[in-house]
Design goal:
Blueprint: H1 2-20, H2 29-38, H3 44-49, H4 58-67, H5 78-81, E1 96-97, H6 101-106, E2 113-118, E3 121-126, E4 132-136
Length: 141
């Protein structure tokens, strides 16, 4: 019985020491965020301010799509389509199509950006980062 009491007392001391132990410093989210800045990853807010804004309207882009026989495209699935937004990266594995030269020649040009067809949407993407600058929905519908 005495040995059992000593064993229980010892186990409780070991358990108490374990509970009081602190996590090592520089672990967790704040340290990771600091590491990201040290590694040169740009702040997303700064990336968004460098993105172009589309100056062509949906109606004008739609007319160009009709003139170039690019209409009748299926929209992306809703789960993927909701990720087509300014400031977000172009979703991986998305079935983006390059556009024909006559159509591209009629669209406004933005240095460092390129146009893509993603389902039935016209997407302007920053070439260097792959971040979506702007989206015109249902242009190719």
């Amino acid at each position: 019985m005495k040995n059992l009491l000593l064993l229980v007392a010892f186990a409780s001391l070991v358990g108490a020491a374990h509970v009081d132990a602190k996590a090592p410093e520089n672990k967790g989210k704040p340290a990771r965020e600091q590491a990201d800045h040290k590694n040169g990853n740009d702040d997303l807010a700064r990336d968004i301010t460098d993105l172009a804004r589309i100056t062509i309207g949906i109606d004008a882009a739609r007319r160009l799509a009709v003139d170039n026989s690019l209409v009748g495209q299926k929209p992306l699935p809703p789960g993927i389509r909701k990720n087509l937004a300014r400031g977000k990266p172009l979703p991986p594995g998305i079935a983006k199509r390059s556009l024909p030269a006559p159509f591209l020649n009629e669209l406004p040009r933005y240095p460092g950006h390129e146009w893509h067809m993603a389902g039935s949407d016209l997407v302007l993407v920053a070439v260097a980062s792959g971040i979506i600058a702007d989206v015109l929905l249902d242009v190719f519908d």
